[in-house]
Amino acid sequence: APSFDQTLAANAVYDYIVVGGGTAGSAVATRLSQGLPWASILLLEAGPSAPAEERINIPGRKGSTLGTVYDWNFTTVPQAAVKNRVFNINRGKVLGGSSALNLMTWDRASVRDYNTWSELGNPGWTWQTMIAAMKKVETFAQSADYGTTGFGTTGPVKTVINRFIPEQQKTWIPTMNGLGIPLNKESLGGNPLGVMYQPSNIDSKAPLWNRSYAANSYIPTARSNLQVVTGVRVAKVNLSKLPGKSTYTATGVTLQDGTVIKARNEIVLSAGSIQSPGLLELSGIGKASVLSAANVTQIIDLPGVGENLQDHIRIQSSYQLKDNYTSFDILRYNATFTAAQLDLWRHGNYSMFDYTGSGYTYTNWKQALGASGAATLTTLAQQAVGSSTSVVDQKKLALLSDATVPQLEVIFSDGYTGVKGYPAATSPLFGKGFFSLISVVMHPLSRGSVHITSSDISANPTINPNYLSNEHDIQAAIAAIKYTRKIANSAPMNALWTAEYEPGTAAVPATGATDAQWRDFVLNTTLSIFHPSGTAAMLPRAKGGVVSPQLVVYGTSNLRVVDASVIPLLISAHIQTAVYGIAEIAADLLIQDCGRKKRAEA
Ligand SMILES: Cc1cc2nc3c(=O)[nH]c(=O)nc-3n(C[C@H](O)[C@H](O)[C@H](O)COP(=O)(O)OP(=O)(O)OC[C@H]3O[C@@H](n4cnc5c(N)ncnc54)[C@H](O)[C@@H]3O)c2cc1C
C-alpha cells in the first residue's frame, strides 16, 4: 500500500515526482510504483484526500461538488461571441482530481479520432495503442445491455451500465431507432455511432454503489514506494543546463512555501489542462510575450504552451413529464423520500441515488441533419478555418467528411439539468418532474488559450476558450438543439411529456421559430461540458507542439506532461477514458526509458 506520510523534508530527493494527484497523475504514479519497485515516487496534490466524502462517492450526487472546496472554481474571461458571458471552468481540487467531480460518463471515440493523433505527427498514438491502454484501466461488469468488444476486465477502475434506469428512459432507444439511428451494443469498440446504454465509472461489486475514480481505484494498488502528499501546491519546476547537454534537466520542484524537493530521474506534470501549462510558464517555458508580461524569465522558448485550448460545448432542452412518471427531481422537493433513498444507498441497496446517465446517441451530421444540413456545416467550416495554417484546424475539416466520426452526441438526462433553473418553490411547476436532452458538439472549431498573468502561483490564469467564435460553431449548436426538439417530439418519447420547459415555446415557438430566436437561445444557454484539453499539445514543435510523442517537453530531457493537456485534437467522446489511457502509455514510456538508462549506465 502507498504511504500517506505527509512530511516533506526540504531538499528531500525522490526518483520521480508527479505533480497533481488527479486523474492522470494518480494513475501514472501508481503504475510507476508498481513497475519500478526499487524507485521512490512522490505524488503531490494541492487538494485534500476525501475518501469518505458522500458528495463524491454517491453517483446520484454528481454535480454537488461543483463550486465547493473540491473545485478550483476557475472562470473564463468574458466570451465576446457569446454575449460576453463568463463561463465556469470547474476542475477537481482533491485527490483524484476531476475524476472525483465528473459525471461518470465512460465512453470512447471512433478509431479515426485516436488515429488523428498519429496523423498529426505523433508516431505510435493510434486507436490500437490507445484501446490497449484504455482496456488496462478498467474492469467492466458485463451486462445484457452491452455486447462483447472494447472493454477491459482486469483494471482498477470499475465500470457498469447503471442498474438504475428510470421508466421514462426506456423510450430512448426506440425513439432514436424511429429517427433512423441504429442500436449499437459495441460502442466502446471503436465505432460509437448509434444509440446505446453506456457504462458509468461505478464500483458495482463494492459494498456500496460507489463512484470509482482515480483516488479509490488506482492509488490503493500502489506499493509502499509511492508517497502521496496532499494539500501541497507546486509553484514551479526547477531547470538547469548540465555541462555538455543541449537540453535542460528538471532537477526538482519548488513548493508554494518555497521548499525545494529534488528529483533524481524525471518530473511529471499532471496538473490538468488549465494548470499544467501555467506550471510550465512559471518555470520559464513558454511564449516570450506571455512570460515577460508575467515577469518570468524565459528559459525555453515554446510558443505553443497554453495555446490550442479546445473544449466541447453543450446545449440543453428540458421537458415536463406527465404526473405518472417519477423523475430524479423528486430528490429536490421531497425530503422524506430523499432521506429514505439515501438510507437505501448507505446500506448498499437499490436506490435512486445510484443514478447516472446511461442513454446516449452519437451521430455524424448527415445522420442527424440529412445531407443538405451536413453540407451547410461543412461549407461554414471551410469558411471558418479553410485558410488556417493550423494542422489541428485542417484535421478537424477532414474529420467532417469522415462518416465514421461522430459530430453530435445527445444524452438522455433524467431530471432537470438545464440553465434557467428548476422551478422555484413558489412556482406551480415546483414538484413536477422533468427530463433533459443534452446535446454536445464533438468538434467545435473554436480554439483558445490559457496563460498565467503573474509569477505568483496563487494568481488565477486567464482562460479564453473563444467559445462559439465562428459561424460554424454557432450553427452546429443551433442544429444540435433543433435536433433535440425533434427527438422529444418523436414517438414514443413524445408521449412522456406535457410541455417543453426549455427552451420553451415562449422563447422559441413550436412552429415558425425564427433563426434569430434559435440563435438567441444558443448564445444565452450554451455551456462547456468540462473537457478543456490541448494546452500542452503533443505535436511537432514546429506545428505548435509542447511535448514530443514521448510526452517530453521540448527543450528538456526529463520533464513530461501527462494529462488532458497533451491531447492535440479533441476526440468525439467524453475524455476521461482517454486521459487514463494516456497515463497508462506514459507509465510504460517512463518505465522503458528508465530501463534503457540503467542498461546504458551498466
Ligand atoms: C464537472 C466535470 C464533469 C465531467 N464529466 C465527465 C464525464 O462524465 N466523463 C468523462 O469522460 N469526462 C468528464 N469530465 C472530464 C474529465 O473528468 C477530465 O477531463 C479529466 O478528469 C482530467 O484529468 P487530468 O488528469 O487532466 O486533470 P485533473 O483530474 O483535473 O487533475 C489535475 C490535478 O492536479 C492538481 N493540481 C493542479 N495544480 C497543482 C499544483 N500546482 N500542485 C499540486 N497539484 C496541483 C489538481 O488539484 C488536480 O487534482 C468532467 C470534468 C468535470 C470537471
How many runs of DSSP E, i.e. beta strands? 24
Number of helices: 15
> Residue share in helices?
25-40%
CATH architecture descriptor of the largest domain: 3-Layer(bba) Sandwich
Taken together, the total number of domains comes to: 2
Low-confidence stretches: none
Beta-strand level of the residues, as a percent range? 15-25%
In CATH terms, the superfamily of the largest domain is FAD/NAD(P)-binding domain
Name of the CATH first level of the largest domain? Alpha Beta
CATH fold topology of the largest domain: FAD/NAD(P)-binding domain
Distinct small molecules:
flavin-adenine dinucleotide
| Overall residue-averaged pLDDT value | 97
Distance between the termini: 31 Å
Report the sheet with the most strands, covering strand number, pairing sense and barrel closure: 7 strands, mixed
Going by helix content, strand content and strand pairing, the class is: alpha/beta
Shape: globular
Compute the CA-based radius of gyration. Answer: 24 Å
Walkthrough of the structure:
The strands form seven sheets. Strands 1, 2, 10, 11, 12, 13 and 24 form a seven-stranded mixed β-sheet that branches. Strands 7, 16, 17, 18, 19, 22 and 23 form a seven-stranded antiparallel β-sheet that branches. Strands 3-4 form a two-stranded antiparallel ribbon. The mean pLDDT is 97. The protein folds into two domains: 1-108 and 214-310 and 449-464 and 532-602, FAD/NAD(P)-binding domain (3-Layer(bba) Sandwich), CATH 3.50.50.60; 164-198 and 313-441 and 469-525, Cholesterol Oxidase, domain 2. The longest helix has 26 residues, at 576-601. Strand 8 and strand 9 form a beta hairpin. The protein is globular and about 75 Å long. With 602 residues, the chain is α/β, with parallel strands linked by helices. Helices cover 28% and strands 18% of the residues. The chain has 15 helices and 24 strands. The structure holds flavin-adenine dinucleotide. The site of flavin-adenine dinucleotide (FAD) has 40 residues, from helix 1, strand 2, helix 7 and helix 15.
